[in-house]
Design a protein that fits this description.
Elements lengths: L3 H9 L6 E5 L9 E5 L9 E2 L3 E6 L12 E7 L10 H7 E3 L8 E9 L2
Antiparallel strand pairs: 1-2, 2-3, 4-5, 5-7, 6-7
Length: 115
């Protein structure tokens, strides 16, 4: 996320109306979530983009309650097929999506977050 000092400086410039922060790994076509940052606000990665889903899960792929930290998984239209010539890594990071349609996968980001 953008450092809050940069967000403040952008708003203080007087020529910026809105500051948007985007998050996403290249395995999900670069951007996965977005948020509008506010002056005096806190950094966060926001909400999933259209046709994208984000899940905060524990080690057993169970959804965690709001406020509890867990690993971020991403799913949806932007998920890539995997890593070129790296089937083992692809299998480790691109796992079946228990919340999606049959055959849908989600990407295990390795990032810790909370809702």
């Amino acid at each position: 996320p953008l450092k809050q000092a940069l967000v403040e400086a952008l708003y203080d410039s007087g020529s910026i109306e809105h500051v948007y922060d985007l998050y996403g790994p290249s395995e999900d076509t670069t951007y996965s979530t977005w948020t509008r940052r506010e002056a005096g606000g806190r950094a966060n990665i926001g909400r999933p983009l259209h046709n994208t889903a984000g899940y905060v899960l524990d080690a057993q792929l169970q959804a965690l309650p709001q406020g509890i930290a867990g690993e971020l998984y991403l799913a949806g239209a932007g998920i890539t097929r995997g890593y070129l010539l790296r089937p083992g890594l692809t299998a480790e990071r691109f796992v079946p999506n228990p919340f999606g349609a049959a055959g849908e996968r989600m990407y295990r980001t390795g990032d810790l977050t909370r809702q």
